[in-house]
Amino acid sequence: MENLTRLISELRSTLTRVEKILGTIDEAIVWTDPDGRIFWCNSAFDRLVKQPRILNLGSLIQDSLPLLNSDLTSVCNPHPAFLALSKDSPGTGVYGFRQGETITVIEISWAAFQPEAVYGEQDLSAVLVIRDITERYQAQTALKEANLRLEERVKQRTQELETMIFQDALTQLPSRASLLKKITEFVNSKNFEFTLLYLDCDQFKLVNGSLGFEVGNQLLAAIAQRLQAHLGPEDLLARIGEDEFCFFMASWLEKNTLSRLLDKIRQSFTLPFEVANCEIFMTVSIGVAQGDKIYTSPEEFLQNADISMYRAKKKERGSYQIFDHKMRQEIIDPTFRRFMEDNSISGKENRVKLKLADESQ
């Protein structure tokens, strides 16, 4: 009997020390019976739920610690204590604990065990360890929101840059880069069924020189609007220079069809453009180049159309010229030879100057 009394005293002393230790830690700890009723909790739990232990002990865990899901809006069901009691343990989750208008964000770790000495082999108890992570959650939420704002800003800025690259600011037409991208798509798919019409406004610089750049810009916008009347559903009209435009026709235009289209475009310029209380008459020279398997670079196709446009301009203002391979040889080859000759002469002069400089030292 004396030994039994001593053992009980030692057990009580041990439990008291354990409770004191558990009472000093920051994490709230609660222990429920198989029905989810609290039969032990530490002082951190009392502080968390803001009610005295005498009210907590014996109450259902979902009454003392009602929870919201991690979205902090919907009611949590089932409660983590019952996840533990259903042998879905151990586990960890984030929940909200609402008290009036305040929501505390908590992280709960749960586990189940069988205190055989108290309940027998078939009975389970649940132990929950609860941590207040409100500050961490708020910091993570703030960081997430900042990242979302940053992503949105990057997306917006990317769209702005794409607009700057692929759209002409004055006429709102696709830009040169957009035209080259379109040609690239066709060439990469081995589709050479397209036609380019390269337009240059004849003597446009006279408008800028006599009426000013503002009127010139208004005229360009009016020209762009009028040209769009000739677009088909799959076609594209781009502004590719100060007073230069280019049609991308998504088909290989036969001779008669091409001739009718060119006449319609030129005919549309017989009417004056009414800009800044002025009637301005304008003509365009047009160069035509069509898809060809011997060329692989989008720039080459555009250059072919440019070469034929200048041939038309040289022949007669307001006319058009269809590209053939001889034009390229006649224009590019002599130009390249002159470039090489000029650089060769310049290189000799530089070498002579360098030699004289060395000799003077």
Written overview of the protein:
This protein is of the alpha+beta class. The protein folds into 2 domains: 17-132, Beta-Lactamase (2-Layer Sandwich), CATH 3.30.450.20; 171-323, Reverse transcriptase/Diguanylate cyclase domain (Alpha-Beta Plaits), CATH 3.30.70.270. Helices cover 51% and strands 20% of the residues. It is built from 13 helices and 12 strands. The strands form 3 sheets. The protein has a 5-stranded antiparallel sheet with strand order 2-1-5-4-3. Strands 7-8-6-11-12 form a 5-stranded mixed sheet. Strand 3 and strand 4 form a beta hairpin. Helix 9 runs antiparallel to helix 10. The longest helix is centred in the last third of the chain and has 36 residues, at 325-360. Residues 117-121 and 351-357 have low confidence and may be disordered.
Q: Summary?
A:
This protein has 361 residues and is α+β, with helices and mostly antiparallel strands. The protein is built from 13 helices and 12 strands.
Global Rg: 42 Å
Query: What structural category do the secondary elements indicate?
Result: alpha+beta
How many DSSP H or I helices?
Answer: 13
Through-space gap between termini: 118 Å
CATH architecture field of the largest domain: 2-Layer Sandwich
Instruction: Note the beta-strand portion.
Output: 15-25%
* Helical proportion, percent range: 40-55%
The CATH fourth-level homologous superfamily of the largest domain: Reverse transcriptase/Diguanylate cyclase domain
For the biggest sheet, the summary is:
5 strands, antiparallel
Strand order of the largest sheet: 2-1-5-4-3
Count of spatially separate domains = 2
* Low-pLDDT residue intervals, each spanning 5 or more residues: 117-121, 351-357
> What is the CATH topology of the largest domain?
Alpha-Beta Plaits
User: What form results from the Cα inertia axes?
Assistant: rod-shaped
Average the pLDDT over all residues and give the rounded result.
86
CATH class of the largest domain: Alpha Beta
